[in-house]
Specification:
CATH architecture of chain A: 2-Layer Sandwich
Distance between the termini of chain A: 30 Å
Largest sheet of chain B: none
Largest interface: A-B, 52 and 50 residues
Structural class of chain A: alpha+beta
CATH architecture of chain B: Up-down Bundle
Number of domains of chain B: 1
CATH topology of chain B: Formate dehydrogenase/DMSO reductase fold
Number of domains of chain A: 1
Strand order of the largest sheet of chain A: 10-9-8-1-11
Helix content of chain A: 10-25%
Strand content of chain A: 5-15%
CATH class of chain B: Mainly Alpha
Strand content of chain B: under 5%
Number of strands of chain B: 0
Distance between the termini of chain B: 16 Å
CATH superfamily of chain B: Formate dehydrogenase/DMSO reductase domain
Number of helices of chain B: 19
Shape of chain A: globular
Helix content of chain B: 55-70%
CATH class of chain A: Alpha Beta
Radius of gyration of chain B: 23 Å
Radius of gyration of chain A: 18 Å
Shape of chain B: globular
Number of strands of chain A: 11
Oligomer: heterodimer
Structural class of chain B: mainly alpha
C-alpha cells in the first residue's frame, strides 16, 4: 500500500466557523491521515455491525445524500505518474478486491476528434437503480443515504442485476475469491464485502464505513490529481480532500453530466467534462498502464479468472 | 368414408394397439432407458463439478454472464408451448383430427417444463439459497414473475394432461387387470378416480376439460411473455424491445409444433401407431408450422428493419455482430435453416410428406435453439462501456449438463409412455363414433365445412377411411 497522502490533511477544516460545516469537514478530512497505511483490515474492524448507512446531516437531521464528482479535467489515467490508475489500485489494495474486478475502473473513451479521455467509473449508485429493481430477493438495495449495497449472505447468484446494470459495474465471484490471512477476523457486512462467498455479486459500495468514521473513500484519497470529490447533496458540500466546494454550484458552473443520463437511472456520480487538460495531458496521448492486483500474491493458491471470457 | 368399420371392432383394435406398450416392453426400450440414464448421470457429474468449483467451470464471465443455461431455459419453456397451447387451440376450434395427437402434445408440455425449470437453478451461483426466493421474494422482480407463471402453467398443464387421462386410466384398470404388474394396477386403480363411464361423470369431465382448455391459453401466453421480460426489463439495447413478449410467444409455439412433430414420428414408429397417426397429421401440423414461419419472418423483418434503419446507439454494433460478425453463423443458420428451408419444404407438394415435415421440424428446433442462444449471448455481448467486446463459448461442463437435460427430457417421456396410453383412446374412439354416425347425413357435411381450417375435417384423417389425403400423404 502506498504511504498516506500527506497533502490532504485537515488544513481545510478551519475555512468556516459554522459548527456543522466544521463537523462535516472533520468527517471528510480525517480519513486522509494514515488510513491508507492501515488498510481495510482495521477499517473494517471499525464496523462490525451490519449497518445500512446511518449518517445524517447534523442540522437538518436528515440522512446524508452521498454523491461523487469526477473532474475529468484532472484525470490523466495516471499517465503522468507512470503507474496504473491509482484510484483503482487503492480500491483493490484496501478493499481486497478480487482479480479481475475493478470496482472503480478507468475506461478510456474515444473523443470525436480522435483523442481520448479517461473516465474513472465506480458504481453509479443510481437513484432509479435497475439492479435494485430486478433483484428477486432484495439482496441489493438502496440505503437512506442513496448508496446501493449488496448483501452477499442473501444473494442467490442469478446475475439478473448484472444483466440489468447499464454501466458494467457489477462483478461475480465465479469461484471462491482469495482472502489474505490478516483479515481472518474481519466480520462480513454488506458495507465490507470481504468474505463474500463464491456465487455472489460484488461491487463498489461507496465506502460507507469510511464515511461513518469520517474518512474519504480510498479511491479519492489515492488520486494524485485530486480529480475525485466526495459530497453530500443534503448539505450541498463536496471535497476532494484539498478543496471544499458548494456542490450544486460546482456541478452547474462546470456543466457536470451523468453517464447515460437518457436511461433515467439518475446516478449519484457526476462528471465534469474534460480529458486531463487540467493536469497537462495531451488528449492524443493514448493508453494507460494495466490494473494489477498485488495483494493476491500474498495469498497462496489465489483463484483468479478473466473479466471478459475464458 | 364408406369404409368406416363397425365401431366396436375399431375400438377393440385401438385399445389393443395403444395399450400394448403398457404391458410389453422390448429390449430396445431398456437399452434406450439405460443409455439415457447414463447421459443423465454424466450431466449430474458435470453439475457436481460445477457445485464444487463454482461457475468458474463454465464459459460465462462478468460481461457475458448468461450463456447456454439461460438459452436452454428459454428453449425448453418455449417447446412446452407445444402441448397445452396447441392442444387447447385445436380443442377450442373443434379440430377433429387433433384427437390422436393431443395426449403427446400435453406430455411434451409437462416434461419440457420439468426440464426447462431446472436451468435457472443450474445457472444460480448459490443454488443452496434457492429458498430465499420464497423467504424474501420481491414482486418487483421478473424472476419472481417467472416462478409464478411457470408454476401456474405447470400445475395447469398437469391438470390438463390428467383430466382427459382419467377415462383412459380406467380403461387400463379394467383391461390390464391381469396383464400389468401389481403396482401398475394399483396406480391405475387410484389414478382413475373411480371412473365408470357414467353419463354424469362424462358430463363433469366435459365441463372440466372445457374450462381448462380455455384457461390454459392465457396462462401459456403469459409464461413466455414473462420469460421474455427477464430480458426486456433491462436497459440492454437488443433486449430493450416492447415486441419481445410477442416474439417469444410466437417462437415458443413455432418450436412447440416442431417438437410435437418430432415426438409424434418417434412414438408412431416405436409403438406402431401408423393406423392412427397418419401422414396427414404431420402435414396438418406442418401447415401450422409454416404459418409460424411467416409470423417469425415478419417479426424479424419488423424488428431489424425499424432498428436497422436508424442504427441508434449500439444497434450498429449489434447489427454487425449478428449479420456479418461473430454471431453471423448462428443468425444465418436460424434464418435460412430454421425458417426459409422449413417453409419451402412445406410449400412444395413434392416435399410435403411425412419425412419432409419431420425434417423441417428438426431444422426448426435446431434453428430456434440457436435463436435463443444468440438472443441471450448477443444481447450481453454489446459493450456497455468503452471496452473490447467479450467472448463466450460453453465449456464441457455446460455441454454435458445440456446433454444430461436433453436425456432427462427423453427419459421422462419414455417412462410416461409406459405408464399412460400415448394416444387418448376414448377421444379417438368418440371421434370415430361421431364420424361413423354423422357421415351419411348431409347436415354433417355442412358441419365439417364450417371448420375449413381443420384440414380434412372428417375424411382424410379418419383412421379407417383410407381416403386419399391432400398433399401427397398416403395413408398406410
Amino acid at each position: 500500500m502506498s504511504p498516506p497522502n500527506g497533502k490532504k490533511g485537515l488544513q481545510s477544516a478551519g475555512l468556516r466557523t459554522d459548527a456543522s460545516r466544521r463537523r462535516f469537514l472533520k468527517l471528510m478530512g480525517a480519513g486522509a491521515v494514515g488510513v491508507a497505511a492501515l488498510g481495510a483490515g482495521l477499517g473494517s474492524l471499525a464496523v462490525t455491525k451490519r449497518a445500512e448507512g446511518g449518517t445524517e446531516d447534523p442540522t437538518t437531521k436528515r440522512p446524508r445524500r452521498w454523491a461523487m464528482v469526477v473532474d475529468l479535467r484532472s484525470c490523466d489515467g495516471c499517465q503522468s505518474q507512470g503507474k496504473p490508475p491509482q484510484c483503482t489500485a487503492a480500491c483493490i489494495q484496501s478493499r481486497y478486491v478480487p482479480e479481475p474486478m475493478e470496482w472503480i475502473e478507468v475506461y478510456e473513451k474515444d473523443l470525436p476528434g480522435g483523442g481520448t479521455q479517461f473516465i474513472p467509473t465506480p458504481c453509479q449508485h443510481c437513484q432509479n437503480a435497475p439492479c435494485v429493481n430486478v433483484c428477486p430477493v432484495g439482496a441489493t438495495w438502496a440505503t437512506p443515504e442513496g448508496t446501493v449495497l449488496v448483501d452477499q449472505q442473501r444473494c442467490i447468484g442469478c446475475r439478473l442485476c448484472m444483466a440489468a446494470c447499464p454501466y458494467d459495474r457489477r462483478f461475480f465471484n465465479w469461484a471462491t475469491a482469495p482472502r489474505p490471512p490478516e483479515t481472518a477476523f474481519v466480520k462480513y457486512s454488506p458495507e465490507n464485502q470481504l468474505g463474500a462467498p463464491k456465487g455472489t455479486v460484488m461491487k463498489c459500495d461507496f465506502c460507507p464505513e469510511m464515511a461513518r468514521v469520517g474518512w474519504l473513500p480510498y479511491c479519492i484519497q489515492a488520486c494524485p490529481n485530486g480529480a475525485i470529490y466526495w459530497g453530500d447533496l443534503e448539505e450541498d458540500l463536496a471535497t476532494n480532500g484539498e478543496k471544499v466546494v458548494t456542490l450544486s454550484r460546482f456541478l452547474s458552473e462546470n456543466e457536470a453530466y451523468r453517464l447515460k443520463e437518457d436511461l433515467g437511472t439518475q446516478p449519484r456520480v457526476y462528471y465534469i467534462p474534460g480529458h486531463g487538460q487540467g493536469v497537462g495531458r495531451d488528449s492524443y496521448k493514448k493508453g494507460r498502464l494495466p490494473t494489477q492486483w498485488p495483494w493476491k500474491e500474498t495469498v497462496a493458491g489465489a483463484k483468479t479468472w478473466k473479466r471478459s471470457g475464458q | 368414408m364408406e369404409a368406416v368399420r363397425p365401431v366396436k371392432e375399431f375400438r377393440k383394435q385401438l385399445e389393443e394397439r395403444v395399450l400394448a406398450p403398457l404391458t410389453r416392453t422390448g429390449k430396445g426400450y431398456y437399452l434406450l432407458v439405460g443409455f439415457l440414464l447414463l447421459v443423465v448421470g454424466w450431466g449430474l457429474y458435470a453439475y457436481f463439478t460445477q457445485l464444487r468449483e463454482g461457475l468458474i467451470v463454465t464459459g460465462m464471465r462478468d460481461r457475458i454472464n448468461w450463456g447456454l443455461y439461460i438459452s436452454l431455459f428459454v428453449f425448453f419453456i418455449g417447446i412446452s408451448h407445444a402441448g397445452t397451447l396447441i392442444s387447447a387451440i385445436l380443442r377450442v376450434t373443434k379440430a377433429g383430427w387433433r384427437t390422436p395427437i393431443t395426449r403427446m402434445a400435453e406430455f411434451i408440455t409437462v416434461v419440457a417444463l420439468m426440464t426447462g425449470a431446472l436451468f435457472p437453478i443450474i445457472d444460480l451461483g448459490r443454488p443452496d439459497r434457492v429458498l430465499n426466493l420464497f423467504l424474501f421474494g420481491r414482486w418487483q422482480s421478473p424472476v419472481v414473475w417467472d416462478i409464478l407463471s411457470i408454476t401456474t402453467y405447470l400445475t395447469g398443464s398437469f391438470i390438463y394432461l390428467y383430466l382427459p387421462l382419467v377415462p383412459d386410466l380406467a380403461l387400463c384398470r379394467d383391461r390390464l387387470a391381469g396383464l400389468a404388474s401389481p403396482w401398475k394396477r394399483l396406480f391405475f386403480g387410484v389414478a382413475s378416480l373411480g371412473w365408470r363411464d357414467e353419463a354424469g361423470q362424462k358430463r363433469l369431465l366435459g365441463i372440466a376439460i372445457g374450462m381448462m382448455m380455455v384457461l390454459i391459453i392465457p396462462v401459456a401466453v403469459s409464461v413466455h411473455t414473462v420469460v421474455s421480460w427477464i430480458f426486456a426489463m433491462t436497459l440492454r439495447e437488443p433486449w430493450d424491445n416492447p415486441m419481445f413478449g410477442a416474439y417469444f410467444v410466437a417462437g415458443a409455439i413455432f418450436s412447440g409444433i416442431a417438437t410435437i412433430i418430432v415426438l409424434m414420428a418417434i412414438l408412431r414408429k416405436a409403438y406402431h401407431l401408423e393406423a392412427y397417426i397418419k401422414p396427414q397429421h404431420f402435414v396438418n401440423l406442418g401447415y401450422m408450422m409454416a404459418a409460424f414461419v411467416l409470423i417469425m419472418m415478419y417479426f424479424n423483418l419488423s424488428e431489424y428493419v425499424t432498428t436497422g434503419y436508424k442504427l441508434a446507439g449500439e444497434e450498429a454494433f449489434h447489427f454487425r455482430q449478428l449479420f456479418s460478425g461473430e454471431l453471423a453463423p448462428y443468425y444465418w443458420f436460424y434464418a435460412i435453416g430454421g425458417m426459409v428451408v422449413p417453409g419451402l419444404i412445406i410449400l412444395f407438394p413434392a416435399t410435403r410428406t411425412l419425412a419432409g415435415v419431420v425434417t423441417a421440424a428438426v431444422l426448426v428446433n435446431l434453428g430456434m435453439f440457436v435463436e435463443r442462444y444468440f438472443i441471450v449471448v448477443g444481447g450481453l455481448r454489446v459493450p456497455l462501456m468503452p471496452y473490447t467486446p467479450a467472448t463466450y463459448f460453453p465449456t464441457w461442463v455446460e455441454w454435458s449438463i445440456m446433454a444430461g437435460a436433453v436425456a432427462w427430457f427423453g427419459l421422462i417421456i419414455a417412462i410416461f409412455s409406459k405408464l399412460f396410453p400415448v394416444i387418448a383412446v376414448w377421444e379417438v374412439a368418440e371421434h370415430h363414433e361421431a364420424e361413423a354416425t354423422r357421415v351419411p347425413q348431409p347436415q354433417a357435411e355442412a358441419q365439417s365445412r364450417r371448420y375449413p381450417y381443420a384440414v380434412g375435417g372428417g375424411s382424410g384423417l379418419d383412421p379407417d377411411a383410407g381416403a386419399p389425403t391432400p398433399g401427397g400423404g398416403k395413408a398406410p
